[in-house]
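Researcher: Please predict.
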Amino acid sequence: MKTVSIVTPAAAAILGLCALVMTIANVRTSFARNHTPPTEPWDSVANWKSYERTSLRIGPARPRVSIIVFTDYECPACKQLAKRLGALRREYPTRLAVFIRQFPLEGHPIAPLAAKAAVCAEQQGKLEQFDSLLVQAPTLEGKTMVSWAQAAGVGDTTAFAKCTGSPATARIVDADIADGRRLGVVGTPTLLVDNEEYVGIPFGLESIVSRHLDRSAP
C-alpha cells in the first residue's frame, strides 16, 4: 500500500519561510562579498623587502607584487588564504609571487615538522606541489611528511627525510619565527602585500592585489 505524504498549509508556510530565509541569507552573503570595502592595512612596513629575501618563493623571481605570508600548516584560515592566493597566482603568473614564512603556533603539534618539510621540498624543487597538498588537506594527521613528499613528486625521499631532521633546516624555520616576531606577528595568517600589513584574510584581497599591480605598472 502506497503511503501518501500530506503537507498541511501550516507546514507549507514554514517550508516557504525557511526557503525565503535561506534565499535572503545567500543574497546578503553575496552582497557582502561584492560590496564590502577592502580591509584597510593594519600597518605600513617600510623595510618590507627584508621579509622577502629569505622566504620560500612561489612565482616569478622578479614579481611586480609580492605577498609575504606568515603561515601555519595546521591553521584553517591559512588554508583558506592559501587557496585564494593560488587563484591569484594563476591569474597573474608572471606578475605575482607568494613568499612563505613559517610561523607554527603552539597547540599545532604537526605544524613545526610541516614547516621544516616545506623547506626540504623547496630544496628539491617541489615546494609548490608540496604546499598545495598540505593546504588542500583537511588534516595533516595520519600521514608522514615523507608520504606527502612522495605525493608531491619529491624524488629523493631519503634526502628529504634527512633534511627534515637537520639543524640547518631548523635554523631556517627559527629565522622565520624570529622575523615574524620582529614584525609583531601574534597569529596566522599575517601577510604583507608589498609594504602593507594585514592580519587575517583581508576583505577584498583580490582588489588589494589589483591595486598594487596597477600601482606597479610601468
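Model: The chain has a mean pLDDT of 86.
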